[in-house]
Write a structure and sequence with these properties.
Elements (H helix, E strand, L loop, with lengths): L2 H17 L4 H12 L3 H4 L1 H13 L3 H8 L1 H20 L4 H29 L5 H29 L4 H4 L1 H15 L13 H24 L4 H23 L13 H31 L4 H29 L1 H16 L11 H27 L7 H38 L8 H22 L2 H8 L19
Helix pairs in contact: 1-7, 1-8, 1-10, 2-8, 4-7, 4-11, 4-17, 5-6, 5-17, 6-7, 6-10, 7-8, 7-17, 8-14, 8-16, 11-12, 11-17, 13-16, 13-17, 13-18, 13-19, 14-15, 14-16, 15-16, 15-18, 15-19, 17-18
Length: 479
Amino acid sequence: MKFMPMIVAIFMGTFLSLLNSNTINIALPVLQDEFASDLHVVQWTLTGFMLALGTFAPTAGYFGQRFSYKRLYIFALLGMTVASVLCALSWNAPMLIAFRIVQGAFCGIIVPASMTMIFQIIPRHQQSVAMSIWIAASIVAPAIGPTFAGWLIQHGSWKWLFWTNVPLGLLAIVIAFFFIPYYRLKVPKGFDLWGLLTVIAASSLLLITLSQGASWGWGSTSTLLCLGGGLLALALFLWREMSIESPLLQLKVFLNRRFTSTLILLCIVMVNFFSGMLLVPVFLQNVQGHSPLETGVILLPSTLAMAIMSLVVGRLYKRVGPMPLLLLGVLLMAAGNLPLAWLQIDSSPAYTLLWMTVRSLGLALVLMPATTAGMEEISREFIGHASSIQNWLRNVFVAFGVALFTTLLSSRTADHTARLIDGDTGPNLARMSTTMGINDLNLLSTLIVVLALPFVFAIHSKRKKIGRTDGPFSDPVQQ
C-alpha cells in the first residue's frame, strides 16, 4: 500500500465535501437576482445541503461495512460530482435546491467514510499523520470557501462553484480506484430498514428545528412539532438499535470510555469554534463595515495557522500522546476567546486576528488528538460506526451552537439597544448594541470551552479497549 496516494485520495474527497458546505453563502444575493427569487427561498440551497449532510452521515457505517468503504467512497464521490454538474445546469431555484440536497447527501457519506478508511487501511504508526492531513483538509476547505467563491463569482459565474468540483472529483475517483485497497471486514447479516428510517427522520426533524427555530419562533407550533417529532424518532431509533442483532449503528462503541469522552470534548469545542465563525464575521461586517471578501481575507491567516499546526500536531501526538496536547489546546482556546469579549467598535482587525489565531492554534491542538485518541480505541469492525456517530453528533452540535448563538445574539443585542436608547449614542446605537451583544456571547463561549477540561482528564484515565488489534487490517474479508 502506498501511503501518499491513498492520503491524497482521502484528502481530496474530504476537502471537496467541506468546501461545498459554505461556498454557496457568498452566492445567495447573486442567486436571488438570477432566479428572481426571495432570500428565504435561495437560502435553502445552503440549509438543504446542511440538512442532508447531517442526515446521511449515520448511514455510512452500515453501507461501508456492507459494500466496502472503498466502493462506498468512490460511489459517493461520483454522486457528488454528478450532483455538481446538475447544480451547474439548474435553471430555477427549486431545481438547484433539489440537486444541492442530493449533493449534501453524498458529501455526508464521504466525510465519515474517509475518516474510517484512515483507521482501517493506514498502518497504526502512520495514522496520526494521516489524521492530521484529514483535519487540515477539514479546516482549510471551509476557511477558503468564501474567499474562493467570491473570486469565482467576481471573475466568472456562480455556476463555476459547481463546475470546479467536476475535474477534482473525477481525479479523486481515479486515485481512489487505483490506490485505495479493496477490503471488507465483517459483513452485516441484515439491513436495518427501521433504523435507517428513524435516524433519517430524527436527524432531519432535529436539524430543521435547529436551523429554522429562530425564524419560526422557538415557541411556535411548527418548531415544537418538529422538535417533538425529532425527539420521538430519536427515541425509537435508540430503542431499535439496542434491541436487534445487526443495527444500523453499533451503539456499543459508547462503552469505550475514552471514545465517549473524546466525543463529548469534540462536541463542546465545535460549539465554541462555530460560535466564533458566527460572531467574528458579524462584528467585522455589521459593526466595522468590512465586505464578506475582506472579512475572509482578514481571518484567512488564523485558519492557515490552524492548518499548519494540525500537520505539526500529528508528529507531536506520536511523541507525547493526547493528554498534553488536549490540555494545552483547551487552555489556548479559552485564552484566545476571552479577549474577544472586550471588542470595541474601533478595535483593529489586527487585534481580532491575533486572538482568533491563538484560539485557532488551540483548536488545532484539540481536533486531531481528540479524534485519534477516541477512534484508535475502537476495533476496525466497528470503526465505521464510530466515525458515523462522531460526524453525526458533531453536525448536530454545530447546528445547535449556531442556533443557540444566533438566538442569543438577537436577544442580547435587543436588550442592549433598549438600555442604550435613552443615552447619547447617536448613529452608533446599533453598532454599540451589536458589539456589546457579541462581547456577552464571546464570554459565554469562553465558559463553554472551559467545560471541556474534565473530559480532557477523563481521556487520561485508564480505559476499556473494545477489540483493538494492530496491523493494516483486522480479520478482513477480501474479495
